[in-house]
Amino acid sequence: MNLLYKTYYYSSYQCDQGRCFYVDFGHKRVKLSFCQLLALRQKVHNIDISSHFDKDLNYSGIEILTLCNREHLFVFDTLQIIDLKQLLKATFGILELNSLVVP
Amino acid sequence: MKDIVRQKIGINVDVMDLLNEQIAKEAHSAAAYLAMASWCDHNGLVYSADFFYKQSNEEREHMLKIFKFINENGGTAYSPEVSNINHEFNSLQEIFETALDQEIQISKSIHNIVTKCRKVMDYGTENFLQWFIQEQMEEENQFRRILEMFDLMGTDGLALKLIDERIKHGE
Ligand SMILES: [Fe+2]
Ligand SMILES: [Fe+2]
């Protein structure tokens, strides 16, 4: 298992044997196919972080995300969302770099 | 470390994002043309209405073409949300000008994706987009020709009827 990226709360891995990915959410490690990783990336990308600083738009400052066709359900606060955004951005950055170095 | 991403997806992930944005733009075009068709119908311009119904269908086909391309190549296409459709126009000429402007924006957007493809060496998607470049040139020209009719014939009642008839034959 290769560590791709680690943020304050979370980390991402690639598993060569399983041809899949893992995201460690601290209390839970979730196995993701590439499609599911893409879906997570899209969901996190679509979260408007500025709404967290507006009481009318997001009163409680939390986000509820479902993963892998609703197999998992997570609740994140503002700091965790910022962290997760960074994790996915960096993870895909590392994956792109890897594409460049693999012959 | 294996390149699992490349094993799973044949197109660049950032290019895929742009293609998904393009899907939303084509869907928006389809809806915008539908609104124009409605205006023409209400104003007794039946041939122009017909023309815009057809345009709307074409835009939906463009959308599907990109949608399927993404999925076929291992990416994920997202069904777009469409909002902000204008239904208010002052004249048929304004409609055709709006349509041309919309097509120009779409052309620019396609060109922008091609530029990105070249940067990241996604030649497969670049090749796929060649069809759209050609298509956009034809669509732009079509609207230019129609706007020229307004320049030539004017915009009063009789001219409008004649132009409406011409639009039927132009198709
Ligand atoms: Fe189009
Ligand atoms: Fe078009």
Automatic annotation (TrEMBL), chain A:
Protein name: Uncharacterized protein
Organism: Salinimicrobium sediminis
From TrEMBL, chain B:
Record's subcellular location: Cytoplasm
Gene Ontology annotations of biological process type: intracellular iron ion homeostasis; iron ion transport
Enzyme class: oxidoreductase
Any one GO molecular function term: ferrous iron binding
Gene3D superfamilies in UniProt: 1.20.1260.10
PROSITE patterns hit by this protein: FERRITIN_LIKE
Keywords attached to this entry: Cytoplasm, Iron, Iron storage, Metal-binding, Oxidoreductase
Xref: InterPro entries: Ferritin (IPR001519), Ferritin-like (IPR012347), Ferritin-like_diiron (IPR009040), Ferritin-like_SF (IPR009078), Ferritin_DPS_dom (IPR008331), Ferritin_prok (IPR041719)
Domain Ferritin-like diiron span(s) in chain numbering: 9-154
EC number: 1.16.3.2
List of residues binding Fe cation: E26, E59, H62, E103, Q136
Protein family: Belongs to the ferritin family. Prokaryotic subfamily.
The protein's name in its UniProt record: Ferritin
Organism: Salinimicrobium sediminis
